[in-house]
Design a protein that fits this description.
Blueprint lengths: L1 H77 L25 H26 L21
Length: 150
């Protein structure tokens, strides 16, 4: 009878140890599942961030395009419209050229003034540059060359 009691206790202890081992294994598998779930959540959050940034950039690009188009439309409306008239070159001669002949008297006056100035300067220079009859050329320099004398 003691043998059955010891055997029964041994079987009970064995069953409890098996339950403990299986519970430890289940806890380890649950922890592994939690780790995998956190990894997948991290990957999903990175994907969400990329999606949000892409949508934001597209929204900014669309907003910029709308602003540029609105600016171009307002600019086109603010410019005066050209009145095209029937002509031989499609109305491109609508701008009048200034009359070049009106400048000829002013240019002639300026040219005569410059000529008289140069003639006066030439006359002054020839009178100053004529050598006197009694001048003897002097080959000595104006300043003594004593740079090597120490």
């Amino acid at each position: 009878m003691i043998f059955f009691l010891v055997l029964t206790l041994f079987v009970i202890v064995f069953l409890f140890s098996l339950a403990s081992v299986s519970q430890s294994y289940a806890s380890a598998q649950q922890a592994q599942a939690a780790i995998e779930a956190s990894r997948s959540a991290q990957i999903a959050s990175t994907g969400n961030l990329v999606t949000i940034v892409t949508v934001a950039l597209v929204a900014i690009a669309l907003l910029a395009a709308v602003v540029v188009i609105a600016w171009l439309i307002l600019r086109a409306k603010s410019q005066p419209k050209r009145q095209w008239g029937p002509s031989r070159n499609g109305g491109w001669d609508q701008f009048q050229q200034p009359d070049a002949n009106a400048l000829i008297p002013a240019l002639m006056t300026l040219l005569l003034y410059e000529m008289t100035q140069h003639r006066q300067q030439d006359a002054d220079q020839t009178w100053l540059n004529e050598p006197a009859l009694n001048d003897i050329p002097n080959d000595t320099p104006a300043f003594p060359d004593n740079t090597w004398d120490m």
